[in-house]
TrEMBL record:
Protein name: DUF4097 domain-containing protein
Domain of life according to the entry: Bacteria
Cross-referenced InterPro entries: Toastrack_DUF4097 (IPR025164)
Domain (DUF4097): residue spans on this chain: 222-387
Pfam families, per database record: DUF4097
Amino acid sequence: MQKIKCYNGRASIVGLTLFAFTILAILGAFNSPTNAADRERSWHIDARSLTIRNMIGSVKVEPASGNEFVVTAVIGGKNSDGHLLEFKLDEGKSTLLNVVYPLDKYRKYKYPEHKGKTSFSGWNFDDDVSVLSKVFRASNKKITVSNNSGEVEVWCDFHIQIPEGKVLKVENGVGKMDAVDAVGDITLDTASGNLSFTNCRGELTADTGSGDVSVKQVGGEILIDTGSGDVEGTDIKGPIDIDTGSGDVFLKEMQCAQILVDTGSGSVQLFNFISDKVDVDTGSGDVTLDGVSAGYINIDTGSGDVEVILDETPRGKLLVDTGSGGIHLELPRDASAELQADTGNGKIHFKLPEAVDVTTSKDELELTLGDGDLDIELDTGSGNIRIFSES
C-alpha cells in the first residue's frame, strides 16, 4: 500500500507539472512577442504615388491585380516583438509610409543577411532633404548595421504590389531590393544592398551606395547609380544612364536611343546593341564594344585599353581617347569612313586593303574607306593603335 501511495504521489506531481507547462504554453502563445499577428502589418493604399522609408530589411516589388498598392511588412529578428518598430502612414495622393526605429535607445543593429558592416554617419536626420531623415528621426550620430553583432536584432521586410502606371519609391538603409514583372515608375534607393529589375517597364531607377545592380528584360528610361558595385544588364529597350564610382559594367542585347556609362574605376563591356548615341567615360578601366551599330560613339578613358568591333559604319562619329592604353579597332569589310589616328608614345598598325588617300607617319595616320560616311578619330597619349577590317 505504501508503494502505491508513493506511486500515486509521483503521478500527481508529474500530472500537475505537465498541466502547468501546458497552461504556460497556451498563455505564451497568446502573449508571445514573436507571433505572426504582432510581426506582420498590411495596408491597401489608394494613391497616385507611394514612398516607403525603412532602415533595415529586404524589399520585393511585384504587380498588383487592382488599382491599389498592397503593402505587407514583416518584422524579423530575435527582437521582433512587434512593438520595437513604429509605422507612420501619411496618406494622400502622394502617400508616405515610414518605419521608425528606436534610435534613442539603440545605435548598433544586427542584421544577419547583411554582408559585413555599414555605418551611417554625418546624416542630418531632422533635415527633410536627407534621404533617410524621416526613417531615423534622431540626432546626427553614427548608426551601425552588422551581420554578426549589435545591441538589438530587428528589421522589417516589405512585399509591395504596385498598380500598373503608378509611382513607387523605396528608400532603404541596408538590404537587397528586387522588382519583378512590375509596370510603373519605380525607384529603389539603398545605402547598402544589391538591387534588381526583372521584366519591368517604366521609369526605373536603381541607386545603391554599395552593392551590385542587375537589370534584365526591361523597357523604359533606366537610371543606375552605384557608389561601389558592378552593373549587369541584358535585353534592354530604352535609354540607359549608368554612373558608378567603382565597379564593372556589363551590358548586352540592347536597343536604346542612348547608352551613357560613367565609371570612376572599372571595366566597361557592351555587346550586341543598336543605339543612336553611346558615351562611355571611365577614369581607369578597359572598354570593350562588340557588335556595335550606333551613329555616335564617344569613349574616353584615363587609363585602360579600348577595343571596338563595328558591325557597320553609318553616318556619324566614332571618337576614342585614352590617356594611357592601347586602341584596337575592327571595321566591317564594306566600311565607309574617314579615319584619323594619333598616338603620343606608341605605334600605329593597320591592315585595310581598301583604304585610299593614306597618309602615315610613326605616330599619325589618315585614310579614307569607301564614301567616308563615319568620322573616326583615335587618340592615345601612350599606347599602340591597331586597325583592321574583318577577314
